[in-house]
Amino acid sequence: MVKGLTGLLSGKSKGIGVELAPDRINIAQLRKQGQGLKLLTLASAPVPENMFHEGQIVDPPGMAELLQELLAEHKIKTKQVSSAVMGGRDTVTRIIPVPAELDDGELREMVLNQEAGLYLPFSRDEADVDYQKLGLFVDEDGIEKFRVLLVATKKDVTDAYIRTFEAAGLRLNVLEITSFSLIRTIREQLRQFSAQEAVAIVDIEFESTEISIAVDGVPEFTRAVPIGTYQIQSALSRAMNLPPSRSTELLQGMTIPIMPTDTIGSTAKMGGTNPGSAAMLRIIGELADELRRSIDFYMNQGENVEIAQLLLAGPGAAIGQLDEFFTQRLSLPCSQVDPITSLGLETTEEVAPTQRPGLSVVLGLGLREAL
Prior knowledge:
Blueprint: E1 16-20, E2 24-33, E3 36-46, E4 52-53, E5 56-57, H1 60-73, E6 80-85, E7 91-99, H2 104-119, E8 127-138, E9 144-154, H3 155-167, E10 171-177, H4 178-185, H5 187-190, E11 197-204, E12 209-215, E13 218-225, H6 229-239, H7 249-252, H8 267-271, H9 275-299, E14 306-313, H10 322-330, E15 334-336, H11 339-343, E16 345-347, H12 360-370
Parallel strand pairs: 1-6, 3-16, 6-10, 11-14, 14-15
Antiparallel strand pairs: 1-2, 2-3, 4-5, 7-9, 8-9, 11-12, 12-13
C-alpha cells in the first residue's frame, strides 16, 4: 500500500494511469514502442454528483464501483495504477533551501520533521509529505545550499484515494499532485524555454483551475482558484434558459468572440448581443483576473525571470479561442496544450481536438507507468 505521497517523483512499473475527478474518471494505458509511445487504451466515464466535495473524494466505495465498471467494460486486467490528487487548499508545493552539507538522512529529518511544518497551512500531523532534492545554488551570503521541492497534502485526502483503489482491488504505486502529471506530459515543450523564463500552466478543470508557474520544469508557484468549467457552463445555461447540467459538451463546442483590442476589459461589449456569450465571458474574465493576480504575486517575490508563455490544459482549454482571449487580456502569448502531439503518441483511434486538452493529466500518469 502506498503511504501518503511516497514515490512522488520516482519508481516505475507497467500499470495504468487513473485520474479521478469530480466530473469523470479517465484511464490511460501507454506502452513504449521503439523510440516512441503507443496509446493502448483510453477510457472515460462520467462521475455523478456527490462523489466529490471541494476536491475531495467523499464516497470511496462508490468511486471504486465506477472504476471497476470502467475497467471491466474496456477489459483492462492490469492491477497496478498511478493516480494524482488535485491541487487546492489541501495541497502544498514549495521550493525550500537546505544546507548542502547535509547527508541524505539528515536532509530527510530536516525536511520532513523540521522544515515541513513551517510551510503548511494545516498541522504537520495531518499531512503526508514527500520531497525531491534539486540543484545546488549559492545564497546571498555565499553559502552553498540545495533547492528542495516540498510536496504535502492532507492525510484525509490521500487516505480517501487509497481506500478507493483498495476497494477496487488495485495496487496504487504512486499518488502525486496533478500538476506534476501535467508537467510530465509537456516536458518536451517546457525544455524549449531557458532557465530565465517561466511558463504559467493553467489547468482548467471541472470545479477549479490550478495555476502552476514552472521554471526548468519545476513548479515554483501553485495556486488553485474556484473557477472551472462547471461555473462557466452554469452561467451560460442560466443566460440561455437551459436546465443545469454537469456535462460540459455544450461549453466545449462554444467559441469565444474575439473583438478589437479597444474592447478588452469590457466583457459586455465582447459578448455582443448574445446573452450566453456575455455570461460566459464574465466568468472567464474573472479567471483572467485571477491569473493576472497570481502572475503578479509570483513576480513580486523578486524572481529574476519573465513569464514567457501561458499554456492552457484541462477540459476548459477546449473552449474555442480561449487562448486568444487570454493573449489579449493578459498581454502574454498563450497556447492550448495538445498532449497527444506533445508526447508523439501513436493512437489506434483518432482523439477529438476538443477532448485532447482534458487528457493532459491522465496521459502524464500513464506515461509514468510506461517508462
